[in-house]
Amino acid sequence: MSEVTIIEVAEEAEVSPATVSRVLNDTAPVSSEKEEKVKKAVEKLNYKPNKFAHALRKQRSDIIGVVVPDVSNPYFATLIRGAETYLHETNKSALICDTNSKTEQEGEYVNTLLRERVDGVILVSSGEDSKQLEVLLKNDIPLVAADRDPHLDNISKVLAHNSHGGELATNHLIEKGYKSFGFVKGPTGISTAVSRYKGFKKVINERDVTINQNFVFKGDYTYESGREAGRKLLERVQDDMLPIGIIAADDLMGLGVLWELNSAGVKVPGDFGVVGFDDILMAKLMYPSLSTVAMPAYQIGREAAKLVIENIKRADQNLNTTKTEKVFEVELIERKSTNRN
Amino acid sequence: MSEVTIIEVAEEAEVSPATVSRVLNDTAPVSSEKEEKVKKAVEKLNYKPNKFAHALRKQRSDIIGVVVPDVSNPYFATLIRGAETYLHETNKSALICDTNSKTEQEGEYVNTLLRERVDGVILVSSGEDSKQLEVLLKNDIPLVAADRDPHLDNISKVLAHNSHGGELATNHLIEKGYKSFGFVKGPTGISTAVSRYKGFKKVINERDVTINQNFVFKGDYTYESGREAGRKLLERVQDDMLPIGIIAADDLMGLGVLWELNSAGVKVPGDFGVVGFDDILMAKLMYPSLSTVAMPAYQIGREAAKLVIENIKRADQNLNTTKTEKVFEVELIERKSTNRN
DNA sequence: TTGAAAGCGCTACCAA
DNA sequence: TTGGTAGCGCTTTCAA
After folding, report:
1. Cis peptide before B150 (omega within 30 of 0)
2. How many other C-beta atoms are found inside a 10 Å radius of the C-beta of residue B322?
3. pLDDT in tens, A151-174
4. Using CB atoms, which residue from B50, B51, B262 is nearest to A287?
5. Is A115 within 8 Å of chain B by CB?
6. Integer distance in angstroms from the first to the last C-alpha of chain A?
7. Burial of A339 from C-beta contacts in 10 A (0-12 / 13-18 / 19+)
8. Residues 6+ apart with CB under 8 A from B46
9. Could you tell me the pTM of the whole model?
10. Residues 6+ apart with CB under 8 A from B282
């Protein structure tokens, strides 16, 4: 592996290494004549700066930590992609940390994050309490929360309007003519899960419809918990309650419910309607396709990335970090699973 | 950000930095007395070696490039996870390169790979011709092919027994009583696609069954191409051909076919049977669940990672790299989509 | 078995 | 606007 160094480029261009560095990083004015020479030399020698030397000198890794509950969940996968795309555009890279939905794991990742000397962190909180990550702030590592509110003070947040999503879903079911209503909840204490349910209850209370407590199920944003809710639903349902509309707090659970309904041979969307949240690819692929409240996962990831980078830049200039809060709107996607008229 | 350096550890332990380094990397004998002191100091100061200084000095990035056609394909996602897990265990990290199934993109990634100074590369080839990657070999960067044969000489390969998978799927459909047979092919020139079809034809020829050329469709390992095949199938089918068994060269296409069959309201598995390849999660979630030839994606990724690491170590000792070829067996998973007896 | 010191490739300070 | 050069934190000779 023949490494071309900045020295060789300097010799080729007949300037000093310092000048080459200045041209490459646009860090100080250089006469256009020398600039030209340097660029030619870089081209000719196919020079690629050594990022380790760079990082060592600059004390910046150009790596951003991205802490998420579950990378195998397509929703988070999309969010990550949004973040990564922006980071890539700004010549940074992402270090993905999968906590397996455990806050203790979040704490353990702090060590990794410090060891890898990440310049900043994007956090999709795994629980009610992400206090362990405050250590990062003490180490002057900018932290931005995405998707879920980690209930930490003094950090920027990028969220979606989840309660409104709950309202959209509920109104949709009512308008499609469903008569009784149920809900498969997300994990306790997670802000998205709480808000979605809140939106559901709000509309239920406002409009003159029934909510059957037998049709409110605990869930944890996994497919399996959706299956379980689906089975219980089928056990508890009676003919005079039909048609019944179910909101699942995420698509994976919605798909689980749908699977059980299919398997039991009941009529979807005729007697049962299901709406999910997220709009993951699978929602479209399932038969019948799943109506859902589309979350801007990609945008959330991207915006969070933007915010950390901004904060890192401010820190570089010894400015204090800004605390913003961005809330994205959500959108209802009608598909077959609720299409009963 | 207070950086604890090796010097401070040395002072705390009352030894030289060299000795600390020797203890940390187990690179030369150190008296147990000093070793103890060093370990205590490391613990006390919560020292974390600076990986950039390390990489700069050692000329090793500890990063392995992983070049794949499509990260959003769950099959490759699993393969990547297998590779990453092993790399993590050996304190290496992965740089994922998504070629979007284009060989030209592979060529472009060579630059990235060189710039990032990866120590080795795992390649899931995107086409018939991955010659552009031979540049890596010239730069003494070990290269291992995974999942697909990139038709390069002198490199190690980790594959699965795809033609046998084709045989398993075909025999399964015959035994389940299907009468005519069809196939949704994978992309031209990709070794997995070629072999799977070959296995299919072999069994068709051996046993006394019909293959209807009208039921052989082009595909490209995407869900959409499966949907298209499904639509054509429905157009061309006539009652006296039933029941008909279809093999899709991967699960995504199988799911697409299944969706169209569902949508048309025909009987699956009664009149139509579908088998896929890969065993992605969605195959289980779909209704009816999709029978499939399970590929050891995780194992393939892991084994490929093992092999690169091995080759890198050999290179470090100036040994020439070994060329092995490992072929994993595959397994038929019976689910609802073919369960007609 | 140990320590001193050179140097990996880069950036940024200082002086010109 | 430029060049010389110190030094980022580490590993690895070389000498003891």
Report:
1. no
2. 11
3. 998 899 999 999 999 999 999 999
4. B262
5. yes
6. 67
7. middle
8. B4
9. 0.89
10. A282, A285, B74, B251, B252, B255
